[in-house]
Amino acid sequence: MSQRDYYEVLGVPKNASDDEIKKAYRRFSSKHHPDRHQGDEAKAAAEEKFKEGQRAYDVLSDPQKRAAYDQYGHAGVDPNMRGGFGGGEGFGGFAEAFGDIFGEMFNQRRGRQVYKGNDLSYAMEITLEEAASGKDAQIKIPSWEDCSSCHGSGARPGTDVKTCSTCHGHGVVQMSQGFFRVQQTCPTCHGSGKIIAEPCTLCHGQGKLKSQKTLEIKIPAGIDDGMRIRSSGNGEPGSNGGPPGDLYIEVRVKPHDIFERDGDDLHCTVPVSMTTAALGGEIEVPTLSGKAAIDIPEGTQPGKQFRLRGKGIKGLRSSVAGDLYCHIQVEIPVKLTEFQRKTLKELDDSLQKGGDKHSPSSQSWKDKIRRFFS
């Protein structure tokens, strides 16, 4: 069976640094460690991937082996390096990288391996105004409480929880592999250190029942779409007495009828009548803090942009608020009466007699066309 490229296994480029390779191996091992998976088939598949990742790291973490592998591929490294923990240098690299993983994944309590609970995610939708000013919100999330029947033991009332005879309550067993002793999760009790012969019929041996609780969440002012808020300890409960996971609230900001957000700035399109654009005047525009006035100069062209300083949003990491940009959209009148048509025609005739001074952009366009065809 052909072996996969070691760089591909760890998901790193061939020019990856030693630190990048080490971090990639940590992520890989955390994801594929057999103790992270339930069921015989899943554990077996995870174990194969885990061994493959270990082989890749044994080679890529060693400068000499990596150089040989880069030059000759799999033929350039020890062909007998298959699973296990290898010897000497390979085991040293494993211990260095994987020791950190054990610190992150497990807490040792009375010899048992305890696991942190899974994290939970919650999507919350808020308005642009709420994102700008912040808000306090209540959300309902899953919760777990001790089973009312077995009081958290997991055993049917009237029966006892027995100590696992394989690991003697430690949750782990020792295995010898060559010159090394390796500790792994007990295959009988799966790390709990106990055996429940008759599971509770209400909680099915879990010791906990799923419920619901209300959580108070503070949405900070200036939060943007896609940002997450972490609520520590409000995820799923851990295993074997491990700490609970965390809850991540992902914020989604609803599209606004008027404003579009760009960082701390806001943008809006303001329709202006043809006569106001031509003659000038004052118009009123909305802002998140109330109304504001803009002076439209005579001869304002479509697309002209006006900036209102400090009328945007003060972001999470900003000391001052952004700006509001008003983009002028000159509105052409429709459904004209005969009188209006006649008046506009007379105006157009008058503008034509005035020459190019009334339409500088039009004259520039004509000049460009002439040069193009000449």
TrEMBL record:
<keyword id="KW-0479">Metal-binding</keyword>
<dbReference type="GO" id="GO:0006260">
    <property type="term" value="P:DNA replication"/>
</dbReference>
<keyword id="KW-0863">Zinc-finger</keyword>
<dbReference type="InterPro" id="IPR002939">
    <property type="entry name" value="DnaJ_C"/>
</dbReference>
<feature type="region of interest" description="Disordered">
    <location>
        <begin position="348"/>
        <end position="374"/>
    </location>
</feature>
<feature type="repeat" description="CXXCXGXG motif">
    <location>
        <begin position="200"/>
        <end position="207"/>
    </location>
</feature>
<feature type="repeat" description="CXXCXGXG motif">
    <location>
        <begin position="147"/>
        <end position="154"/>
    </location>
</feature>
<dbReference type="GO" id="GO:0051082">
    <property type="term" value="F:unfolded protein binding"/>
</dbReference>
<dbReference type="InterPro" id="IPR001623">
    <property type="entry name" value="DnaJ_domain"/>
</dbReference>
<feature type="compositionally biased region" description="Basic and acidic residues">
    <location>
        <begin position="36"/>
        <end position="48"/>
    </location>
</feature>
<dbReference type="InterPro" id="IPR008971">
    <property type="entry name" value="HSP40/DnaJ_pept-bd"/>
</dbReference>
<feature type="binding site">
    <location>
        <position position="147"/>
    </location>
    <ligand>
        <name>Zn(2+) 1</name>
    </ligand>
</feature>
<feature type="binding site">
    <location>
        <position position="150"/>
    </location>
    <ligand>
        <name>Zn(2+) 1</name>
    </ligand>
</feature>
<protein>
    <recommendedName>
        <fullName>Chaperone protein DnaJ</fullName>
    </recommendedName>
</protein>
<dbReference type="GO" id="GO:0005524">
    <property type="term" value="F:ATP binding"/>
</dbReference>
<dbReference type="GO" id="GO:0005737">
    <property type="term" value="C:cytoplasm"/>
</dbReference>
<keyword id="KW-0143">Chaperone</keyword>
<dbReference type="InterPro" id="IPR012724">
    <property type="entry name" value="DnaJ"/>
</dbReference>
<feature type="zinc finger region" description="CR-type">
    <location>
        <begin position="134"/>
        <end position="212"/>
    </location>
</feature>
<feature type="binding site">
    <location>
        <position position="203"/>
    </location>
    <ligand>
        <name>Zn(2+) 1</name>
    </ligand>
</feature>
<feature type="binding site">
    <location>
        <position position="189"/>
    </location>
    <ligand>
        <name>Zn(2+) 2</name>
    </ligand>
</feature>
<dbReference type="InterPro" id="IPR036869">
    <property type="entry name" value="J_dom_sf"/>
</dbReference>
<keyword id="KW-0677">Repeat</keyword>
<dbReference type="GO" id="GO:0042026">
    <property type="term" value="P:protein refolding"/>
</dbReference>
<feature type="binding site">
    <location>
        <position position="186"/>
    </location>
    <ligand>
        <name>Zn(2+) 2</name>
    </ligand>
</feature>
<keyword id="KW-0235">DNA replication</keyword>
<dbReference type="Pfam" id="PF00684">
    <property type="entry name" value="DnaJ_CXXCXGXG"/>
</dbReference>
<dbReference type="Pfam" id="PF01556">
    <property type="entry name" value="DnaJ_C"/>
</dbReference>
<dbReference type="GO" id="GO:0009408">
    <property type="term" value="P:response to heat"/>
</dbReference>
<comment type="function">
    <text>Participates actively in the response to hyperosmotic and heat shock by preventing the aggregation of stress-denatured proteins and by disaggregating proteins, also in an autonomous, DnaK-independent fashion. Unfolded proteins bind initially to DnaJ; upon interaction with the DnaJ-bound protein, DnaK hydrolyzes its bound ATP, resulting in the formation of a stable complex. GrpE releases ADP from DnaK; ATP binding to DnaK triggers the release of the substrate protein, thus completing the reaction cycle.</text>
</comment>
<dbReference type="InterPro" id="IPR001305">
    <property type="entry name" value="HSP_DnaJ_Cys-rich_dom"/>
</dbReference>
<feature type="compositionally biased region" description="Basic and acidic residues">
    <location>
        <begin position="348"/>
        <end position="359"/>
    </location>
</feature>
<feature type="repeat" description="CXXCXGXG motif">
    <location>
        <begin position="164"/>
        <end position="171"/>
    </location>
</feature>
<feature type="binding site">
    <location>
        <position position="164"/>
    </location>
    <ligand>
        <name>Zn(2+) 2</name>
    </ligand>
</feature>
<keyword id="KW-0346">Stress response</keyword>
<feature type="domain" description="CR-type">
    <location>
        <begin position="134"/>
        <end position="212"/>
    </location>
</feature>
<keyword id="KW-0862">Zinc</keyword>
<comment type="subunit">
    <text>Homodimer.</text>
</comment>
<keyword id="KW-0963">Cytoplasm</keyword>
<feature type="domain" description="J">
    <location>
        <begin position="5"/>
        <end position="73"/>
    </location>
</feature>
<feature type="repeat" description="CXXCXGXG motif">
    <location>
        <begin position="186"/>
        <end position="193"/>
    </location>
</feature>
<feature type="binding site">
    <location>
        <position position="200"/>
    </location>
    <ligand>
        <name>Zn(2+) 1</name>
    </ligand>
</feature>
